[in-house]
Input
Amino acid sequence: TAGITQAPTSQILAAGRSMTLRCTQDMRHNAMYWYRQDLGLGLRLIHYSNTAGTTGKGEVPDGYSVSRANTDDFPLTLASAVPSQTSVYFCASSREAYNEQFFGPGTRLTVL
Amino acid sequence: RKEVEQDPGPFNVPEGATVAFNCTYSNSASQSFFWYRQDCRKEPKLLMSVYSSGNEDGRFTAQLNRASQYISLLIRDSKLSDSATYLCVGGILTGGGNKLTFGTGTQLKVEL
Output
């Protein structure tokens, strides 16, 4: 079972460019999440989706957008990247919104 | 004050030792608690949920003290493979789902 996959594994991006980080899960989980992890700050929630067709803002949503067209996919888009968006991005999912969350392998993004 | 606080460590212990981590949370509305383990440059992996009555999973024991707002993780008979960062997590169930707040982690190094 693949679980949660993320792509790309890592990326270097020029400031001002746009990028979509991909996340796919095959566990038929209803809820999905995007976090960023920065040294000394821990994991912070960017956006979440409790079920297909719905999304919500987390703690640090500015500069990011998401969509949830189906159960399996939850892409994260940076419309115009800035250096402060350099981070490790983790996608996660849970069976329902109140269950334990399981994480994908992460995407290391560097914005120059 | 951070919502979830942990001693960052590192805790350096010999193989076979017993080690305990504490974590405090500031939001009394927190309803669910977890310990995650994160290896260097990898995704967080669920170690165990923490129940009000305390729970044990092999060498790992988790306790919750709601009155003092802290949770603990006890690792008995430490193995080299236990070396990792342990993340304390508190969750609040809201209309937007289960909002998880992650601590910044406690680093454990188990040595020969």
User: Anything to note?
Assistant: The interface with chain B takes residues 31, 40-45, 48, 50, 56, 58, 90, 94, 97-106 of chain A (CB under 8 Å). Residues 20 and 77 of chain A are 4 Å apart (CA to CA).
